[in-house]
Amino acid sequence: MTEPVIDVEHLSIIYTVGAGVFQAVSDVSLKIYPGQVVGIVGETGCGKSTLAQAIPRLLPEPPATIGAGKIVFRGTDLVKVSKRQMPMIRGTGIGMIFQEPLNSLNPAYRVFDQIAESIRIRHYRDMGYVKTFQGGDAPFDYSKPAASTTVGGSLTRSIVPDGALEEAARDRLRTRSEFRDEVLEYLRLVRINDPETILNLYPHELSGGMRQRIMIAMALSEKPSLLIADEPTSALDVTIQAQVLTLMKELIDEVHASILFISHDLGVIAETADEIGVMYAGRIVEYGPVAEVFRSPRHPYTKALLRAAPSRYKSEGPLSSIAGSVPNLSRPPPGCRFNPRCPLVRDICRGEHPPLAPVDRTADPEAPGLHRSACYFAEEVPGLP
Amino acid sequence: MGRSLSDLLVFVAKRLVQLVPVLLGVIILTFVVTHLRLTGLCNEWYPHAGATTLANCNAKYGAPLINQFWQYFTGLLQGDWGQSVTGIQVYPSIAADLPATLELVLASLFLMVVIGIPLGVIAAQYSGRLGDHLVRILYLSGWATPTYLGAVIAAVFIGPYLGLPTSGEYSTTIPPFNQYTHMSVVDAAIALNLPYTVDAIDHLILPAVVLAFINMGIATRMTRASMLEVLPLDYVKSARMKGLAEFWVMYKHALRNALITTTTVLGITAGGLLAGTVVIEEVFDWPGIGQYAFTAIGGNSSTPNFDGAVAVVIIFAIAVVVANLVADILYGLLDPRVDWR
Amino acid sequence: MATVVVKVRTDGPLSVFWRVLRANPLSFLGFLMVAFLGLTALVVVVAPGLVVPYGPLQQTAARNAAPSQQHLFGTDNLGRDIFSNVMLALPLDLGIGFAIAGSALLIGGALGLLAGFYNTPGTVGGWVSVSIMRVTDIFLSFPSLILALALTRVLGLGVGPTVLAITITWWPFYVRLVRGEVLAVKHLPYVNAARAAGVTENRILLRHVLRNVLEPMIVYFTLDIGTVLVTYSTIGFIGVASKYPGTSPEWGAMLAFYQQTGSTNVYPWLVIAPGAAIFVTVLAFSLLGDGLRDILDPRTRRAFVRGTITHDPPPETPAPLPIASGAITDSNPVAPVNVVETRSQT
Question: In whole angstroms, how large is the CA radius of gyration of chain A?
């Protein structure tokens, strides 16, 4: 059985802020296997972005604290790694693309410099000039270039064709112009025609869709095994959104990286993901293969969510919405957090929070690819209107 | 993409042209403000003078304001900036004293940038926690210390305690080499005279540090605020994701953008530094225009030098205007979004 | 249709106060200090006998005495009690600070409101606005201290003329501050909504714009009191304001006098006492003002975020505005939040 690229176990994240202590993420477990695209859906404020940014430990640690849990990446528990050592791990296997293209590219530097920076860092690591993390119980030797690891899959296509660099150049620090070819290749990878023309441009001189592609190129240039996409299309208008999504789907086939795709848009997730997790108030309430979850949701929240999306088949009647509002995460309701708004609520729902259990009771709980739901009454959900 | 070299030159030229009316305004305003109520002051200035001196004074300052201004302005342009009560020409005195003040101000600016800005970065990194509070106490203390207080405490208590000199530019009055720039450290360095260079630096330390400490607050506070605005942005996170060490994330990515807004306070800072030199140079016996201004204005009950005072006010204002211009240009250079055309 | 009941949790003033204190301990300290100084000044004016043991010129037997129980800050060479002099100067210095900052606020604020609000080009208001800003810009080129010093030469020595001189150099800062704020607020959506509803421009100015402007103005004013004090006492140090020793002591004048005439390395309290008084007072106002500024600045308001931390709708503040054309030297406003940058000690 293959190892997951990333194994999140019972992760809890709390924010301590003047107004209180907020349980942004509670007891979330997630496994992403090589080549898989996992989508996380949820409303604003459900914790999905917090989860996404917590994995590479990007959250500012004073207000945010990791309360419990493990994030195992290549055999190392990232939660236990100190802040000081994290830079050595980042950039060796996890890439991230963000929502707002204007803010995710540094406005003060040109396109070439920004992509070349990550290539250069990788190059220094390959040459041994920069320390990389040698984890405590890591079976992997990070001092080797990421492309040589077999588990987790990485870019199988060689970006810089063999022979493009002279033999001698491979063993010494490359110069700026030698990075140029590689940068151009990554730009072509994200379907930018004539990449030479944009090399010397600044981010504010480019369109939103173009910037998003450059951000994807920048993330890919680190040769990641896991790409985390935090609402990458939410700030784009619909036509550009479609282009970027098409690009991502093609890349999924080409580069064999795993993707963790965060979005609030059900349609986007439906198009791109293999498995989907539905988050509500900091917990994953349903998880499973995309087609199954959409066709037969087993959690009242998922069902309501799917029903609330306006459909082109219903042109009359009021839009359906979910009664009530998202709970205040500093004082979440006891038990299942959806219980104040749930049509199936019973007393037991206010007790222990229901575990994320397989819908098919007979299946082996540890098996991958199962459809799971965190509801005591998952069987009754199909009967809901 | 209006950011080529020729665009830059046009940008600078446009600013310089905009400078002229402001300079004119400065001269006019100074003149008006200082010449408003002059009759009667002649008696105050020259209490023991003879009748002719008084008559001359009254004639000069009793004439209609426009005439006076025209005479003054034409004189300014020709290099005649008036003279002191004892007949010493103002312009040569100021020209001779200017480099020393320039040296002092540049040294303070250097300290402010090298110490003040990293402090702002630290305060932003530890926002709300102990580091932030410590930095805040530090720069607010500097702010709350009047220049004369800081200067006096440094000169009377700290200097002797640390063994640093508290008076003059060098230990001897006339250094044994040619003074080309009249900036003590530069001259000594050019002359390759090591002991004197060290001596000059020693003399520069206390006044520059006091001046920098007092005026550091603005730069630190502005850097902190800018950094707080920049740090949550996604590109900082992108930089971290590349595996950059936190130091480079802070300085190469975050500060590079935060500095853009920090340059806007350069003009205010210049004003503060200049005003501070008046007292600092007096206390530390530093031979610059600050000291000249101090005596011209009548500090320590010296005879006021009216023409000199007016000239100094104009010079300081010009310096502030120029500093603002430099800040404007710097801003345009640092922020790639500014179109120079 | 179901009625939605929304329960709003309002915090009592005490818990808000407590939260402010915890989040911003330094500014709370400033607040306490300012309150203490104000109360003390009040006592000195109303009931001097309680806190001022000796008269300002009263010569006692103890000459050049170090601080002791009878003379808390020591005495000078003629036995004058330093503590009494420092105390007597407190209400004067505080009063001067408030007077100057207050007058500058009123004058500059009014001009700024006018210049910002009625600035459509081509109208009388527009012409007035432009001229106000030109004059303000020129004034702003001078370090305040220098201009004030020059003015004292003209206006004469003494407390009154000096106060007038500083006020004349001080109001331009408020003009720029207020104008910037007004410009930023003038076309906010809700102000435009008021216009669409038929509210007259004047009423908009008074009700909506003024309210928004008040916040940064208060911050600036608080910080300004300290700066004014520093400037005033610096002028006093240069020797052209109050006469010391005299019936009406002033900290800067005291310090100047003792620095020149006293042997301060032997009797350091002569200089340290008035110096510390100035330092503490200005620090108090600075702590308070700086803390207030953090509270009001949306960027640094983190400690007061309530509700779930959502991640991340696009930030409301746009990326820093590029100053397109000479905004520093011109009269264009810098992004409003930055305008609450005070001047340095000039």
Answer: 22
Structural domain including B219 reads 98-172+204-334
Q: Which residues pair with A230 in a beta bridge?
A: A262
Mean pLDDT, chain A, integer: 80
- Does B14 fall in a domain? no
B190 lies in a domain? no
pLDDT higher at C26 or A168: C26
Residue whose C-alpha is closest to residue A293's, from A368, A367, A372 = A372
The interface residues of chain C toward chain B in range 51-110, judged by CB-CB distance below 8 A, are: none
Q: Which residue of chain C has the CA closest to A106?
A: C319
Least confident residue range of A130-139, A159-168, B92-101, C98-107: A159-168
pLDDT of residue A150: 31
Identity of the residue in C304, C308, C319 whose CB atom sits nearest the CB atom of A45:
C308
Please name the residue of chain C whose CA is at the shortest distance from the CA of residue B150: C275
The helix/strand/coil state of A280 is strand
Assigned domain for B184 exists: no
**8 A C-beta contact, residue A55 and residue A13:** no
Mean pLDDT of A248-266: 84
Distance CA(C220)–CA(C342), nearest Å, equals 7
Where residue B283 sits, what CATH number does that domain have?
Answer: 1.10.3720.10
Instruction: Tell whether ipTM is more than 0.90.
Output: no
Chain B residue with CA closest to A58: the answer is B237
- Picking from A287-301, A305-319, B78-92, B291-305, which range would have the lowest pLDDT averaged per residue? A305-319
Amino acid at C75: T
The Cα C295–Cα C308 span in angstroms is: 20
Give the pLDDT confidence score for residue B44 in this predicted structure: 63
Domain count across chain B: 1
Q: Is C23 on the interface with A (CB under 8 A)?
A: yes
β-bridge partners, B320? none
Terminal Cα-to-Cα distance of chain C (whole angstroms): 64
CB contact under 8 Å between A18 and C23, yes or no, is yes
CA nearest neighbour of A53 among A94, A93, A88 = A94
Can you tell me the mean pLDDT for A30-38?
88
For B291, the token pair is: 């000291």
First CA to last CA across chain A, in angstroms? 40
Overall pTM > 0.95? no
**B90-111 and B194-230 are packed helices; what angle lies between their axes, rounded to 10 degrees?**
60
